[in-house]
Specification:
single chain; Phosphorylase Kinase, domain 1; alpha+beta; 8 helices
Length: 299
């Protein structure tokens, strides 16, 4: 493994805890006076988790994109830490959950485009990569509210020497954002990531229209547990409810992204172009009975 990313743990300074997940804790800190985010991993199955950690390091050290969180380096001893750029506005999920956060149709289009660009960087990698856990919690906002895709712990190659067929068939990730083919043990593909983008776009639209953040499928009273979602999605073809106020063109695009058949979904590259065209023709989106809410971006 390349070692130019290897950092010394003694060079890290931990300032404040930013968040805690199942397998890691994220801190605001510094390395040699540079303010950074430090992700400290907790290992349960040490050998397998260490291998996954090294895969994530390798992927992050090679990827370069304005819409992928910048990787600064990592430590292996005495703790496994990933050091990356600090995105001061936190995750998209947490931003949408704040009552004071404001978004607009322009921002929805911009964010959707930036997400697609970040994911397209993975899909265009040689050999191609898939994210496998794309959700609003794994999308960060920098100081100017640019989206940065992060958390590549579940990323896998889809072909080439590193191809892992068995891994790509495992049901991984967050069920509310997981494509239906995974329930049927099909291979996770680039189109499965596009499905997840569609769910995030739904999240953005609902936040704007209802002025309140809603988790996918939270409107269904019969779905009480996360594991029920993937069954409903795969077997009953259920999807989150798109508000009637959503512009028709955007509604159709979301539905195309989360189509039951992966072949009916656009590629990430195609999605970027569709979103660009929508932005150019935004004034033509709305019918007389479908007027967009009057909101302004909060910078």
């Amino acid at each position: 493994m390349d070692s130019d990313w290897l950092l010394q743990f003694t060079d890290l300074k931990f300032i404040t805890k930013m968040g805690r997940g199942v397998s890691s804790t994220v801190w605001k800190g510094t390395i040699k006076d540079e303010v950074v985010a430090i992700k400290v991993l907790r290992l349960e199955q040490k050998l397998q988790d260490l291998n996954d950690f090294k895969k994530e390091l390798f992927i992050m050290s090679k990827l370069r994109s304005p819409n992928i969180v910048h990787f600064c380096g990592a430590t292996l001893e005495p703790k496994l830490c990933i050091v990356m750029e600090l995105c001061v506005n936190g995750s998209l999920c947490h931003y949408l959950a704040k009552p004071t956060s404001e978004i607009s149709w322009d921002r929805i289009l911009q964010w959707s485009t930036e997400i697609s660009r970040g994911i397209n960087t993975l899909h265009c990698w040689k050999p191609p990569l898939v994210h496998r856990d794309l959700k609003s919690l794994n999308l960060l906002l920098d100081s100017v509210f640019t989206i940065k895709v992060c958390d590549f712990g579940l990323s896998r190659y889809t072909q080439g020497d590193q191809y892992d067929d068995a891994s790509l068939q495992r049901l991984r990730g967050t069920y509310a954002y997981t494509a239906p083919e995974m329930y049927h043990s099909k291979n996770y593909t680039s189109k499965s990531d596009v499905y997840s983008i569609g769910v995030v776009m739904w999240e953005l639209v609902v936040r704007l229209i209802k002025n309140k953040h809603s988790k996918p499928y939270s409107e269904f009273q019969d779905i009480k547990h996360d594991y029920q979602i993937i069954f409903q999605v795969a077997v009953n073809q259920r999807r989150p409810t798109i508000p009637t106020e959503c512009p028709t063109k955007l509604k159709q695009l979301i539905e195309k992204c989360w189509a039951q058949d992966p072949e009916e979904r656009p590629t990430a590259a195609e999605l970027i172009q569709i979103l660009k065209n929508l932005k150019k023709k935004k004034t033509k989106w709305f019918s007389p009975n479908n007027t967009p809410p009057k909101t302004k971006d909060k910078q």
